[in-house]
Amino acid sequence: MPRPERKDRPNARFHGRVEAEGRLCAVPGCDEPGEFRAPGGARSGFDGPGEFRWMCLDHVRAFNAGYNYFAGMSADEINNAQRPYAGWERETRAFAANGADRPPRWADFSDPLDAIGARFRDRMAAQRERADGRPLSGQDRDALRTLGLATDADRRALRQRYAALVRQLHPDHNGGDRSSETRLQAVVEAYQHLKKAAAFA
C-alpha cells in the first residue's frame, strides 16, 4: 500500500487551518498562504459579524495577541461588561414547575390537524387537580396513565378498568398469548399502587 504523500508545510492539520489554493495572507507584503480566518471590518447596514480576513499562521497569531475586546469602550462600559452579574438584570418570565403554564407561542399558528393544540390539552389535562380535591402524586398520575383512567376516576372505575384489562391481557383469556405479559405486569402494579393511594381511599 503506498504511503500518503507528505505535505511541504509542517503542521498541515493545525487547528483552524483552512487550505485554499492561491489564497494569500491579507497582510500587505506577505506571500504566505492565507489559511486562518480573522475578523475584519463591519459590513455596512449589517448588525452581525463583519467580513473575515485570511492570514498566515504567524500573522493570525500576532492578530490574536493584539486583540482587545474592550477597544472603543468607555471606562463605564468596560466596568459594566466586567460585572459578574452582567446581563442578569434583564427581566425574565418565571417558568411553571410542570412547564405547561401556558400554550406555546406556536399554538397560535395554523394547526389544521390539531396536532399541537391536542398535545397541549392532553398535557394540561394530565396535570389538573381532582374535582374532589384529593391529592395526586406523580406516581399516582403515572399509574392512572398506565390504566388509561381519567384524573377524577373513583374506586369503582378503578376496579372496572383493572378487571377489563386483566381479561384482555391475561394469557388464560386470550388463547395462551403471552406477548402482553409485560403490559399486564405494569397494569397490576399500577392497580396495586392506586388501591392504597389517598385519592382512592
- Rounded mean pLDDT is 77
Instruction: Identify the strand order in the major beta sheet.
Output: 1-2
Which shape, going by the Cα principal axes? elongated
| CATH homology-level superfamily of one domain | DnaJ domain
Order of helices and strands: EEHHHHHH
Distance between the termini: 78 Å
Helical proportion, percent range: 25-40%
Q: Which class do the helix and strand fractions yield?
A: mainly alpha
What would you report as the Rg, rounded to the nearest angstrom? 33 Å
Number of strands: 2
Which CATH class of one domain is shown?
Mainly Alpha
Low-confidence stretches: none
Keywords:
mainly alpha; 6 helices; Helix Hairpins; 201 residues; two-stranded antiparallel ribbon
Briefly summarize what is shown:
This protein is 35% helix and 4% strand.
Note down, in words, how this protein is organized:
It is built from six helices and two strands, in the order E-E-H-H-H-H-H-H. It is mainly α and 201 residues long. Among the domains are: 15-82, no CATH class; 132-200, DnaJ domain (Helix Hairpins, Orthogonal Bundle). The longest helix has 15 residues, at 155-169. The N and C termini lie far apart (78 Å).
